[in-house]
Amino acid sequence: MPKTPQAGTAISEDVPRLPTPRRLSLVLVLGSLTALGPLTIDLYLPALPQASADLHVSQTVTQLTLTAFMIGIAVGQLVLGPLSDTLGRRRPLLTGLTVYVVASAVCALAPDPAVLIGMRLVQGLAGAAGIVIARAVVRDLYDGLAAARLLSSLMLVSGTAPILAPVLGAQLLRLTSWRGVFVTLTLLGLAIFAATATLLTETLPTTHRRHGGLTTTLRTIRDLIRDRRFTGYLLTGSLGFAALFAYIAGSSFTIQRIYGASPLTYSLLFAVNSIGMVVTGQLNGKLLLGRFPSHRVLATGLAVLGAAGTALLLLVTTTHAGLPWIATTLFFTACPVGMILPTTTALCLQRAPLAAGSASALLGTTQFLMGALAPALAGLGGQGTALPMATSVLGLALAASGSFLAFCRPWRPTADPLAQ
To answer: What is the SS3 assignment for 414?
Structure first.
């Protein structure tokens, strides 16, 4: 029966760590792979009304193209992550990118909504390869603090893309139609494929690949879930990610309808918050981790998130605070996620160096499912109040902290898990 290897176990002596000059290219390639999924969603969002009119269907039907893509991303990670533990990283990754390019091209030519929805599902399944395998590659190449720092660096690329994508999508629609958006995604997929094929070599040696088919894969996933600390880090990061999604889902209505901000003001505030999260991620990797124990860094991020959620709830329920106060609180809701996500991801992968693909699949799928629940929570109670958003942010932040305390028991004096 395969066991989850102990934290800090090196994956292979014959996979060299990359020299410093190649680190930048690695960050750009892996960051682009991680950003491909969010880009595929956000670049297309401004085109939804136009696609609906062109295909002569309701907005509800067009929304199914987003739903299909989301389902594909979730299922694709569960399939492709464990598959990369068996076949190596390059083959599933390059195959996934190839299918992504073909699916994007067919979307651009789709004659009816059924074809578009079906190809969006395929696009999501294939695009999941970049997200799930990029994290596994990080664990193949780096241990502990080095892995956490690289994951923080990836946020510089993958975190910037969703900020720019809606703006770029809107500008594209001034030059072309919704079909042109999918042509752009096709060209983007080709560029990422070329960069990956050229710059990213195989990182999982044959001697460390897992065999045994579906039974072994399910056993590996079971062993990972049985690992108390792995599950703790998994839930902590996913619930923190869901708190971020609750803010994203509720902030548009809250800031524009309730507090009277214009769409431009909202976009600027959203961009500032996103930049704050990216900058916090860089500080997390370059300044905090290594100087302070990873559990302390994670606890600090959770404390800031909880404090922001508490302040937001108090502002909404007990005061008549204006937009500047609400915007400041939302800024401190977004920023700590830049500490929480890279740290919990590195801690999870540290627990499974010989099953990084399966661990990455669990991470991605759980985060996606938690994130998918957040908009529903933030929308409870109607659209006349910001209370559901504030309650969701605080509740998810407290759930993340509770998972960290219950499963990881950080008060116990142990060596830094990322330094072992």
So the answer is: coil
